[in-house]
């Protein structure tokens, strides 16, 4: 299915939004009016409003969001299932649970909310002192992480609504949060140009990722949990080794701001980056050399995601389109060809 976030009076340009689709319910996050949808090797969905975030579910569905009301659509028929109304200001992120039949939204009204896909409100998470940016479910599906412009990120129990952890440490707004595949660690990134890795068992700082010189907007763990990738407004993507606690690679990946980073979710064979230079790019996880540049958008690419099997990549842009790129993976050499 698809879910879409709609602008309140007009698009907001801060870029503090996010993406997702339901692993259990086949949902996609979409946009106000889907003018056309055609599936080839490259699928483009057009909308009358600018788009900012995108994501696949394990069922290979995608979603994108801008701001305001969230709408849920079924895929591939593009039939509206529900409209999620409850936030009093623009929505900034939406993500489906990896385990349960629910999704979460973040908003500039300083709250996160938990919903059933039919639009029923389950829970509201209150406590942040400034607008929320991105959010992420813990791999267990039992907890929700929220990043905020109040310089903190927080961990919530989705069953009780209780705040389990209030994590300080960033000197400026926290923009993103991500969880280690085994659930033991969390990574946060912020406008202070740092990413930080935290031990969830103790709540203590495990590792500070120093190297970027401008705000860090994206952070992603590799599937084996050994590496972290970060993307920044300094146009660099950096790869960090958690075992050695040091940076391994510094990639001059794009000519403008890197809006998102994501490892291929099965084995981490490649890394994908999206950028305001209108392109997305794929990088070999062997040596982080370029595999393919995804060219086709006419404006800033604000986010991307990769399907659970690694065979499809979806990108979203301020040109008001999303593009779904199909690819083939060779079982012999793990190289990927893009159709």
UniProtKB/TrEMBL annotation:
Specify whether Methyltransferase is a keyword of the entry. Answer: yes
Name by which UniProt lists this protein = COMPASS-like H3K4 histone methylase component WDR5B
Name the UniProt key words of this record, in alphabetical order.
Answer: Methyltransferase, Repeat, Transferase, WD repeat
Gene Ontology BP annotations: methylation
Q: Which CDD domains match?
A: WD40
Q: Does the keyword Methyltransferase apply?
A: yes
Renumbered to this chain, the signal peptide range is none
What is the species of this protein? Answer: Zea mays (Maize)
Which InterPro entries does the UniProt entry name for this protein? WD40/YVTN_repeat-like_dom_sf, WD40_PAC1, WD40_repeat_CS, WD40_repeat_dom_sf, WD40_rpt
**Alphabetical list of Gene3D superfamilies matching this protein:** YVTN repeat-like/Quinoprotein amine dehydrogenase (2.130.10.10)
GO terms of molecular function: methyltransferase activity
Query: Per its UniProt entry, which superkingdom is the organism in?
Result: Eukaryota
**UniProt xrefs under SMART domains:** WD40 (SM00320)
Q: Which SUPFAM superfamilies match?
A: WD40 repeat-like (SSF50978)
Give the source lineage, highest ranks first: Eukaryota, Viridiplantae, Streptophyta, Embryophyta, Tracheophyta
């Amino acid at each position: 299915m698809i879910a879409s976030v709609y602008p309140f009076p007009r698009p907001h340009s801060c870029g503090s939004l996010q993406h997702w689709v339901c692993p259990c319910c086949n949902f996609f996050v979409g946009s106000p009016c889907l003018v056309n949808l055609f599936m080839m090797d490259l699928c483009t969905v057009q909308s009358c409003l600018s788009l900012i975030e995108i994501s696949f579910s394990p069922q290979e569905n995608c979603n994108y969001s801008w701001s305001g009301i969230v709408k849920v659509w079924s895929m591939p028929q593009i039939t509206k299932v529900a409209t999620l109304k409850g936030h009093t200001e623009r929505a900034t992120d939406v993500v489906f649970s990896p385990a349960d039949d629910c999704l979460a939204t973040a908003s500039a009204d300083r709250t996160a909310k938990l919903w059933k896909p039919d639009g029923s409100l389950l829970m509201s998470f209150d406590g942040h002192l400034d607008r929320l940016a991105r959010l992420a479910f813990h791999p267990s599906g039992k907890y929700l992480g929220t990043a905020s412009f109040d310089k903190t990120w927080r961990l919530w129990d989705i069953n009780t609504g209780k705040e389990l952890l209030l994590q300080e440490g960033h000197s400026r707004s926290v923009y993103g949060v991500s969880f280690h595949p085994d659930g033991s660690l969390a990574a946060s990134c912020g406008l202070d140009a740092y990413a930080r890795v935290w031990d969830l068992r103790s709540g203590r700082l495990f590792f500070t990722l120093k190297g970027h010189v401008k705000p860090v907007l994206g952070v992603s763990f590799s599937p084996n949990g050994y590496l972290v990738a970060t993307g920044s407004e300094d146009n660099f993507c950096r790869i960090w080794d958690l075992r050695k606690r040091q940076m391994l690679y510094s990639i001059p990946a794009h000519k403008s701001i890197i809006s998102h980073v994501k490892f291929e979710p099965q084995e981490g064979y490649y890394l994908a980056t999206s950028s305001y230079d209108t392109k997305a790019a794929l990088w070999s996880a062997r040596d982080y050399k370029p595999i393919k540049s995804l060219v086709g958008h006419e404006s800033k690419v604000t986010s991307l995601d990769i399907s659970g099997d690694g065979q499809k990549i979806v990108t979203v842009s301020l040109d008001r389109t999303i593009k779904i790129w199909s690819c083939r993976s060779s079982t012999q050499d793990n190289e990927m060809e893009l159709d």
